[in-house]
Amino acid sequence: MKNDDVLDLLIKELQGDLPVVSRPYLALAEKVGLTEDEVIDIINRWQTEGLMRRLGAVVRHNRLGFASNALVAWKVDASECDRVGNSLAASSRVSHCYWRQTPADWPYNIFSMIHARTRPELASIIEELAAQVGINEYKTITSMRELKKTSVHYR
Amino acid sequence: MDSIDRRLLNILQQGIPLVSCPFLEIADSLGISEEEVMTRISHLKQDGIIRRLGGVFDSPAMGMKSTLCAMTVPPERIKEVAGRVNAFTEVTHNYLRDDKFNMWFTVTASSAQALETILNKIMSDTGVKVTSMPVLQRYKIKVVFDLDEE
Fold this sequence. Notes:
The structure holds 2 protein chains of 2 kinds.
Chain A: H1 4-15, H2 24-32, H3 36-49, E1 52-59, E2 68-74, H4 81-89, E3 94-100, E4 110-116, H5 119-133, E5 138-149
Chain B: H1 3-14, H2 22-30, H3 34-46, E1 50-57, E2 65-71, H4 78-86, E3 91-97, E4 103-109, H5 112-126, E5 131-133, E6 135-141
Antiparallel strand pairs in B: 2-4, 2-5, 3-4
């Protein structure tokens, strides 16, 4: 087992940008003081343990034509949350779906992030999803402006 | 972007192979050379389509605590309040939205206590109530966009 400092260093590097070279894991390994095989093994283990969801490209969805997005919050009885949450999650246009603890003045507790190419397409996807889950009370919260977007800093 | 770029993006989003020469492996599956894969990746980055190539860590699995917060900010104070909220590195996303809650942001901190400290600090810095909506159940976290889908 490698000491925590080296692992922290590797986490820090992996939160950045992987070098686009023939042997990127070797480049990483040299930077943090491990071997190429060790880097590959550690990343493998982190993925198996669920610490790392994936190692890949993080894309800007608006540049891919998904220019119209909304956070839709649905008002769902606690007993129905799993059914509705899983049903929304099955849609390829839903990227995130969570059940959140909400205050009394905001009873919209299932949050789903929905992506579409155009405004009309977004509206029709939301209508289809509403019919699919059988929920009529929901709030479409469109984003007017992105004030900040960064990654989480783990170390 | 041509069809090879789209296939490449799908592969890169799913995961970079954990082998010594991952771009060569991708190149073989696309029937192009390793150099071409690397050149195409560089272009996709320059064009702003790829934000970065790297690890996506799972905050809860890493022991982090996070929440979605909502605020009702008077329109004339939006810039000032956004500045104060965004000053925290633990604030990862902040969006202005057209609702009675008009500012929505996510906070991810190293512990439940650290999270609470930040929320209290934001409230005292801005004088605006912060409504926290922590996750009870996750149904989906997906950041892969399938480009073949129509």
